[in-house]
Write a structure and sequence with these properties.
The chain is of the alpha/beta class. The protein folds into 2 domains: 179 residues, Rossmann fold; 85 residues, N-(1-d-carboxylethyl)-l-norvaline Dehydrogenase, domain 2 (Orthogonal Bundle), CATH 1.10.1040. It is 49% helix and 14% strand. An 8-stranded mixed β-sheet has the order 3-2-1-4-5-6-7-8, with helices on both faces. β5, α6 and β6 form a beta-alpha-beta unit. α1 crosses α2. The radius of gyration is 19 Å and the shape is globular. The N and C termini lie far apart (41 Å).
């Protein structure tokens, strides 16, 4: 497993590409938007420079990492030699299924197809391909280069060989992994969405300010980041899609907070728009 293709160059895609290239994989990054690819390349170059200046990596690793990366809007070129394809697009099932059908036609028969979903079913996605045994979910966390975990989620038909190969890839990326049998929300998203949704409900009810809710969770329960800060980082539109999926599949306790729905309708999506539960410059 030496050649990795990453589909989608947004926050998660560029982070996955960065970590994979830094750890010796040849990485092809694909997106339909050339501007997004350019931003991803700039981000990776900037993060490499920062990491070197802080002593996390050696100076020579900057050039070797960049040499491992290519960026293209041509999907077929990006995936033709891939051992592993990691999809990192929006959390929309119809979009993921569309991409996986294309990948199934374009990739070698032995290529493993992974989705970086935080909630959705690799079984459902894999069933739309001719290789459900080679379809799996790899749930990375934001920011990818700092977060230590990958949740590896096996679909109903995912083979043990596929899991073991993906686990080895995770280890080569210097990540810890956990093995999960598919169920909506997996482990972290089910817990995280409940905590975040309850924090939003408390804010809506006037229990405390956003700052004090987050402070209580950080200092009282030793969370590294407050649930409202984290929602702003993830993106409130992304969080709402996650909540809606969990509500549809797991029931009433995952009903999205009305305040979250209101913020998304207002275009207050968190850090990426400069406004969410907090204001950002």
């Amino acid at each position: 497993m030496k050649n990795v293709a990453v589909i989608g160059s947004g926050v998660m895609g560029r982070g996955i590409a960065y970590v994979a290239a830094l750890n010796g994989f040849t990485v092809h990054v694909n997106d339909i938007n050339q501007e997004s690819l350019a931003k991803a390349q700039q981000y990776i170059e900037s993060e490499l420079t920062k990491s070197a200046s802080r002593g996390f990596i050696e100076e020579e690793e900057i050039q070797s990492t960049l040499a491992n990366l290519t960026f293209s809007t041509d999907l077929a070129t990006c995936v033709e030699e891939a051992d592993l394809v990691i999809e990192a697009v929006l959390e929309l099932m119809e979009l993921k299924v569309k991409i996986f059908k294309e990948l199934d036609q374009l990739c070698r028969p032995d290529t493993i197809l992974a989705t970086n979903t935080s909630t959705m079913s690799p079984t459902e996605i894999g069933a739309q391909t001719s290789r459900p045994d080679k379809v799996i979910a790899m749930h990375f966390f934001n920011p990818v280069h700092k977060m230590k975990l990958i949740e590896i989620i096996k679909g109903l038909d995912t083979s043990e060989e596929t899991f073991q190969q993906v686990e080895k890839v995770g280890q080569q990326m210097k990540k810890e992994t956990v093995e999960i049998n598919e169920f909506p929300g997996f482990v972290t998203s089910r817990m995280n969405c409940l905590i975040g949704n309850e924090a939003m409900n408390m804010l809506m009810e006037g229990v405390a300010s956003a700052e004090d809710i987050d402070k209580a969770m950080k200092l009282g329960l030793n969370h590294p980041m407050g649930p409202l800060e984290l929602a702003d980082l993830v993106g409130l539109d992304t969080r709402l899609r996650n909540m809606q999926y969990l509500y549809e599949t797991l029931g009433e306790k995952y009903r999205p907070c009305p305040l979250l729905i209101k913020y998304v309708k207002a275009g207050k999506l968190g850090r990426k728009t400069g406004s969410g539960f907090y204001q950002y410059n």
